[in-house]
Backbone:
């Protein structure tokens, strides 16, 4: 009877060790998955995204919660910064060398956490793609007095150029159709910056 009991205990210990080995292997596999490793380790990610025949450069700073998109091509040259910490969007348009600063409408743009996933969904699509959302701003004559409150990225981009306030509007008042600058940002959002003679109450 003793040898039988000893054999049984040995089998149980072997089975337990085998299960622990399998569990450990699975956990290590998950921890070492490249996609997960990149997500948790890289605080800053830069990618080139093809947008309707052109290329836009996307930069995501997870530490500061800032998304930057830049386009330099025959389709137009501009740079827009979305600071999810301060809640502001700043856009510089060339060759005018003018910055527009506006509050962020979080109902019309992806959240910071879902931004990389949403962008990834457009990569396999071909042809001319229209942005899923449109945000229209009216440009004012009012200059921005202090850029430091908008964060270091916006401050560094706009400090040496004319910077004005851009007010988001649901419906555009009387305006000149040619006075609007339209930017397609990653096929996600179209930013319309328009000039009008009508005063907009903020």
Residues:
């Amino acid at each position: 009877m003793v040898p039988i009991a000893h054999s049984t205990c040995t089998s149980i210990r072997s089975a337990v060790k085998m299960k622990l080995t399998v569990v450990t292997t699975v956990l290590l596999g998950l921890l070492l998955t490249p996609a997960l490793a990149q997500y948790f380790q890289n605080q800053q990610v830069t990618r080139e995204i093809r947008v309707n025949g052109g290329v836009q450069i996307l930069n995501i700073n997870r530490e500061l919660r800032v998304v930057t998109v830049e386009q330099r091509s025959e389709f137009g040259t501009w740079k827009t910064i979305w600071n999810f910490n301060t809640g502001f969007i700043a856009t510089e348009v060339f060759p005018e060398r003018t910055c527009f600063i506006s509050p962020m409408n979080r109902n019309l743009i992806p959240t910071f956490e879902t931004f990389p996933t949403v962008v990834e969904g457009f990569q396999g699509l071909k042809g001319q793609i229209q942005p899923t959302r449109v945000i229209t701003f009216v440009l004012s004559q009012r200059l921005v007095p202090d850029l430091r409150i908008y964060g270091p990225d916006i401050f560094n981009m706009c400090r040496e150029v004319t910077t004005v306030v851009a007010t988001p509007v649901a419906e555009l008042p009387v305006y000149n159709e040619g006075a609007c600058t339209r930017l397609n940002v990653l096929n996600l959002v179209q930013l319309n910056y328009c000039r009008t003679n009508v005063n907009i109450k903020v």
Q: What stands out?
A: The helical segments are 2-31, 34-41, 115-120, 152-158. DSSP finds four helices and ten strands in the chain.
